[in-house]
Amino acid sequence: MKSFDLTGSLRTIAERSSEQQKVLKAMRKECLIPCVIYGGEKNVNFSVKSADVRKLVYTPDIHYVNLTIDGEVHTAIVREIQFHPVKDTILHMDFLEINDKKPIVMEVPLKLQGLAVGVKAGGKMRQLMRTLKVKALYTNIPEMLTIDVTDMGLGKAKKIADLSYENLELINPKTAVVCMVAATRQSKDAAVAQ
User: Hey, is 23 helix, strand or coil?
Assistant: First the structure.
């Protein structure tokens, strides 16, 4: 998993919700995103510049974040992002503090590797899952998981139960289909011709 450095500033929470909404609105006008980091000793409310998180949010890669808040360093992952329903700007971000002793659950991108036997015979590869949910220490989570599909024939599928990775526990249902080689008209015609 890649690392990403991010700097934030502590923010205070107003006692009344009406005051809080005014403060948050003013922050967003200044291109600041209100954030919270939880999972540590206490929750920390802070803000970051929207330009600073662009390469963290708008990417297919997964990252852990070295988050510096007023000089104090936290290691975290992005847990949730709230977007504006019309403008698609970021309204709020939640971070989860992590360490190398407690496992976390995270979605990891999935890549199919190789040319399946069934595809050579005229079938079509269908990838039904683009990410897999894994549980592991953050130091053991790879940037991407790969599945070798070269031995898959026509009509064959790979399910979660067929997969295993070292130091990773797959959280998805065991019966979920990850990918399959579907028969096409061309492959059916070839089978009839034989």
Answer: helix
pLDDT, averaged across the chain: 90
Do residues 83 and 89 touch, judged by C-beta distance below 8 A? yes
pLDDT band at residue 143 using 50, 70 and 90 as cut-offs: very high
Query: For residue 28, what is the enclosing H or E element?
Result: helix 17-29
User: How would you label 111-139 residue by residue, b for 16+ Cβ within 10 Å and e otherwise?
Assistant: ebeeebbbbebbbebeeebeebebebebe
Q: Is the pLDDT of residue 141 over 60?
A: yes
Please provide the size of the chain in residues. 194
In a 3-state reduction of DSSP, which class is residue 5?
strand
Residue 19 CA, distance from chain mean position = 34
pLDDT (mean) for 111-135:
93
This prediction's pTM: 0.81
**Burial tier of 159 (Cβ tally within 10 Å: 0-12, 13-18, 19+):** middle
